[in-house]
């Protein structure tokens, strides 16, 4: 396994994350340790890093990478357990929390992982291989309406119904077990100029569904506020509109003190804002970064500070 994942918006994200060089930081998406290495580099001898990745390969790779560093503590956990991890570490708070969402280049480029339509592999798409449901299970057992709903809601795919119908017809003849079988079903349905976009959307939808990505993200955001020190920053890099909307809405909601009269007509609900926005508009990569790292093209960086 090679370390070919290039960390996205490395300086932009860490300049905003680190407010105390002696602090304890949480990297929710360790991956191949790109952001984590740089966090450790920027901290002084009292600073510490705790990091998690749900993918066993990424976790084991980074475990070796940081084996000699006693200031790094790693977990092969889902990031939604950030509050549990803080407890295990006997920490009340983190001084900053970073999440660089989505999948790594290794997961995308590894022909065995089935994350990409570009190479033939088992239709799996699980980041956490201890979970039971694979993309093949979804494709071969879910009914047409549910499949169409997944493609439409999680992939924003307009041809969702046609694709779902065709999958049902094809699986009657032969079980769909590989990425190339799914690719050929879609190839038969869409013209060449829509092929790449449609395949990306269908694979994205399946990946989000199989890994329950949106629910995990909501849980992570909620739980991170329980363990983020006052003045600490929550820094999130998103790669598609569905996850970016969740982060944007969460930040917005947590910066509002009063609910609108429609939400709370009698003014009975008292709330305290828990976050302050650091950037109103998301920060996006420079053209230079995008030209050097294609994966960065859709990235958006949002930052808020715990009040
Ligand atoms: C974009 S990569 C992170 C790359 C990392 N910042 C680096 O520079 O090497 C995203 C990582 O998050 C992990 N991941 C995705 N969902 C997760 C979750 N719910 N809990 C923990 N890790 C998750 C993926 O397995 C992947 O390794």
Describe this structure in words.
The chain has 307 residues and is an alpha/beta fold. It is 45% helix and 13% strand. It contains 13 helices and seven strands. It has a seven-stranded mixed β-sheet with strand order 3-2-1-4-5-7-6, sandwiched between helices. Strand 2 (48-52), helix 3 and strand 3 form a beta-alpha-beta unit. Helix 7 (144-155) crosses helix 8. The chain binds S-adenosylmethionine. S-adenosylmethionine binds at residues 5, 7, 29, 31-35, 52-55, 58, 78-79, 100, 102-104, 127, 216.
Q: What is the makeup of the main sheet?
A: 7 strands, mixed
Uncertain runs are: none
Q: State the helical fraction.
A: 40-55%
Bound molecules: S-adenosylmethionine
Spell out the blueprint of helices and strands.
Blueprint: H1 10-17, E1 24-27, H2 34-42, E2 48-52, H3 56-65, E3 72-75, H4 82-88, E4 94-100, H5 105-109, H6 135-141, H7 144-155, H8 160-173, H9 179-189, H10 192-210, H11 213-226, E5 228-238, H12 241-255, E6 275-277, H13 287-292, E7 300-306
Parallel strand pairs: 1-2, 1-4, 2-3, 4-5
Antiparallel strand pairs: 5-7, 6-7
Helix pairs in contact: 7-8, 7-10, 8-9, 11-12
Residues 5, 7, 29, 31-35, 52-55, 58, 78-79, 100, 102-104, 127, 216 line the site of S-adenosylmethionine (SAM).
Compact overview of the structure:
The chain is 45% helix and 13% strand.
